[in-house]
Amino acid sequence: MQIINHKLIQTKCDEVNIKYQETPNTSSNFKPNLPDTIILHYTGGSSLQSSANWLCNPEAKSSAHIIIGKSGDIIQLIPFNIITWHAGKSQWKERKGLNKYSIGIELDNAGILTKKENGYYTWFNNKVEDKNVLIAKHPLDNKPKKPGKHTLKNKSKPPNKS
């Protein structure tokens, strides 16, 4: 893949699909020499496409530059030279409002799981196989004070029950 005019372009050698689905949830272009930071998030949604659909909905008041699916497929929501709304009210050291400094990348996954007697479950009540559960611990002392605050956990639509 390559970037041309601030968009990911699929090449013949790519083994993943790259799709463009534009979100209206954006601000202006980045200032010169920005962005200079990447912020990774998780979607907490049921699928790559459902997360993209939500981030393209004006009601979401949230967006990102790209979403990477479990298979490696990518949906780009806006060119890399435009500010998206992925970091909310944020600060890192002296910088406030990290949207204006950063590329937002969403990783498609089920989000925080709930452990029940017979396994782990998503917030939309799908069981996750034990082999797919990873127990993670935040490695930094400056971990977020309110984990989950800027996730799609309660915003994504549950999967169709068909």
Descriptive overview:
The protein starts with a strand and ends in a 34-residue tail after the last strand. The protein has a domain of 77 residues: Lysozyme-like. It is mainly beta and 162 residues long. It has a five-stranded mixed β-sheet, covered by helices on one side. Strands 12-13-14 form a three-stranded antiparallel β-sheet, with no helix packed on it. Strands 1-2 form a two-stranded antiparallel ribbon.
Mean pLDDT: 85
Give the CA-CA distance, first to last residue: 35 Å
Structural class: mainly beta
What name is given to the CATH topology of the domain at 33-109?
Answer: Lysozyme-like
Describe the secondary-structure layout.
Layout lengths: L1 E3 L2 E3 L8 E3 L5 E4 L7 E6 L5 H8 L10 E3 L5 E3 L5 E3 L6 E2 L2 E2 L5 E6 L6 E3 L2 E3 L5 E2 L34
Parallel strand pairs: 3-7, 5-11, 6-11
Antiparallel strand pairs: 1-2, 4-8, 6-7, 9-10, 12-13, 13-14
Compact summary:
By secondary structure, the protein is mainly beta. It is built from 1 helix and 14 strands, in the order βββββαβββββββββ.
Tags for this entry?
mainly beta; 1 helix; five-stranded mixed β-sheet; three-stranded antiparallel β-sheet; globular; Lysozyme-like
